[in-house]
Amino acid sequence: MTDKRMIWGIGSGVIAGALWGLVFLTPELAAGFTPLQLSAGRYVAYGLIAAALIAPRWNSVRKRVDAKGWRALIWLSLLGNILYYICLAQAVQSGGVAMTTLIIGLLPVTVAVMGRRDHGSVPLKRLALPLGLGVAGIACTAWGSLSGPSGPDSGAGFGLLCAFGALASWTLYAVENSRWLTRLHTVSSQDWSLLTGLVTGALALILAVPAFVLSPGAHTNGQWGSFIGLMAAVALLCSVIGNAFWNRASRLLPMTLMGQMILFETLFALLYGFLWEGRWPTVSEGVAIALLCASVLTCAAAHRPEKRQ
Questions:
Q1: What's the pLDDT score for residue 32?
Q2: Beta-carbon contacts of residue 165 (< 8 Å; ≥ 6 apart)
Q3: Under 8 Å between Cβ of 39 and 201
Q4: What's the confidence (pLDDT) of residue 200?
Q5: Per-residue pLDDT tens for 270-303?
């Protein structure tokens, strides 16, 4: 792997993480709405934006994807978008941003392990240091979170379970999505993201019936307006733009290094959480952030080509 390719890939991963970190705040900003409504609203908006962007090239793009590709898009949309965000939103509302960020922060470990046999990946023994630093950073975050006032007695068991559900669904999505991007040479990263949005939007329309018709809840016109604006912003920034950068990184970096890129979502989610709460990181949180950064840097170093003597 060339240095230039790695720099562009890591840069794309950082931007994707910065945008995706915003999704951890969304359930707090729309606390009066259910996780089902948040997922349906976000992805209906994603589908509409994707449809508008891909419409001028629709006839050309759709011919580049065969039946297997469309089935993969349905599966990936369910895993990486709808199911993941329902679990994440429920985890945030039940257990808080810190706990959810902590569990999702395990993604670099789970993705690196699952993608260890993919082309361009390096043996797990070469990843021992970066993975160890990542786990240490997550453990440090756990210690700081669980030793606080909203620790283990806060009744967040269901939120913890949902967070692990989000972890499992996104691990499978990250691995399978990267493999499909490697196979598809006729579809650009941006078009694959838009097609994913199109399929996700169609699935979200089905989800919208039980979410909004069967249990609409009691909300004012102002709350509905804020909800619609928030969902549109999240769909554009996190789903359309964020996914495009992630797909670009997936084509430039091997799977084991892609797993480490997810750490940036954790870092930015923590940063946004600190800004939202109006405070500085605690000592344990600061140490955790340093460890997570060191994990990414050492993982990148492990993927550099060895210099011949």
A1: 82
A2: 83, 87, 91
A3: no
A4: 93
A5: 888 888 878 887 787 788 778 877 877 777 677 6
| pLDDT tens profile 28-69 | 888 788 888 888 998 999 899 999 999 999 988 888 888 888
| Token output for 263 | 């750490």
Taking CA atoms, 60 is separated from 56, 57, 65, 221, in Å, by: 9, 5, 10, 41
Cβ(42)–Cβ(193) below 8 Å: no
Q: Give the separation between CA 192 and CA 276, rounded to whole angstroms.
A: 33
The residues, ordered by sequence, that sit 6+ positions from 211 with a Cβ below 8 Å of its Cβ are 34, 36, 37, 39, 40, 41
Q: Which residues contact 32 (CB under 8 A, 6 or more apart)?
A: 217, 219, 223
* φ, ψ dihedrals at 133, nearest 5°: -65, -40
Counting residues of the chain whose pLDDT is more than 70, the rounded percentage is: 86
Of the pLDDT bands very low, low, confident and very high (cuts 50, 70, 90), residue 307 is low
Q: Is 119 exposed, middle or buried (0-12, 13-18, 19+ CB in 10 A)?
A: exposed
Show the DSSP H helices in 55-106 as ranges.
Answer: 58-62, 67-77, 84-95, 97-104
Query: Residue 95 burial by CB count (10 A; 0-12/13-18/19+): exposed, middle or buried?
Result: buried
Distance from C-alpha of 292 to C-alpha of 130, rounded to nearest angstrom: 9
Residue tagged 């945030």 (tokens): 92
Determine the angle formed by the axes of helices 67-77 and 189-208, rounding to 10 degrees.
60
3-state DSSP: the chain helix, strand, coil percent, rounded to 5? 80, 0, 20
Instruction: Name which of 302, 297, 272 is nearest 17 in CA terms.
Output: 272
Q: What CA–CA distances, in Å, run from 224 to 27, 47, 204?
A: 14, 19, 18
Structure-block tokens of residue 206: 């089905």
159, 91 contact by CB (below 8 A): yes
Residue-by-residue DSSP string for 226-255: HHHHHHHHHIIIIIIIHHHHHHHHHHHS-H
